[in-house]
Amino acid sequence: MNVTQILVTFGSSHAGALDQVRRIEPEVRAAHPGVEVAWAYTSAKVRQILAQRGEKVDSPPEALAKLQAQGVKRIVVQSLHVIPGAEFHDLAREARAFAHRDKELRVAIGWPLVSDTEDLQALARIMLRAAAPGRQADQALVWVGHGTHHPAGVAYPALAFALAQADPRAYLGTVEGYPSFDDVLGRLQAAGVKAVKLMPLLTVLGEHSKQDIAGDDADSWKSRLTAAGLAVTTDLTPVAGYSGARDLWLGHLAKAFKELQAEKSGQAKSAHATK
Ligand code: CO
Q1: Cα gap 91→41, rounded to integer Å
Q2: How far is the C-alpha of 44 from the C-alpha of 221, rounded, in Å?
Q3: Rg of the Cα trace of the chain?
Q4: Catalytic residues
Q5: Whole-prediction pTM value?
Q6: pLDDT digits over 135-176, tens only?
Q7: Which residue, 68, 95, 113, 206, is the most exposed by fewest CB within 10 angstroms?
Q8: Rounded distance, CA 182 to CA 166, Å?
């Protein structure tokens, strides 16, 4: 069977930003021997910056069109995003539209990191395990995710709850959504926390990690926590650097593969139908 898997990330134009997320490629190849792997980036801005530098990267529709032109009839599209937000739903819509136009083409879509409650609980455990090395005894743990206005943004407070249940000194906020910096600081202060280990809940090591979270400017999370009297250390390993997180994505990819085999031609579906 002529199958190709497309790994889809937001992307980044920062040097080395994708080193951790790219670690999933050999793992995907090992899990599905003989199946080709392609990459696509969902961020138009990132693709544009890279193109200006002569580093052309495909959008998901471009990657799908190339494979279709090569005669590939079975495609698994794996989202390497954290939550099923706008990036994921745009991707799923594009993939479905593609499969709709070609009756012989089957496309299945793998969910992002957090697709259900089990993923939330598994991810909370994975995050706590990843944060343990180098954690000082008095340190609370603070992760910062992206945040979104998309309805799927409810995943962030849900994950914060799962984290707090697993470790009362583990917190989660977001750069652009809910919970906010003030929400997290308020809880840290109410709990009498004096020291934190600050980490991103992001797939790539880009601007949000380097500036908004750990930057030296006064408005970064690190600077504001420090200004509030907390001792702060940072670990900018992206979530894609946690092997357990990559295992979650690999599990979603395996599920999409199964759907691909069960599906009728000319259709694309996400895991919605099987959840
Ligand atoms: Co952003």
Answers
A1: 10
A2: 27
A3: 19
A4: 146
A5: 0.93
A6: 999 999 999 999 999 999 999 999 999 999 999 999 999 999
A7: 68
A8: 22
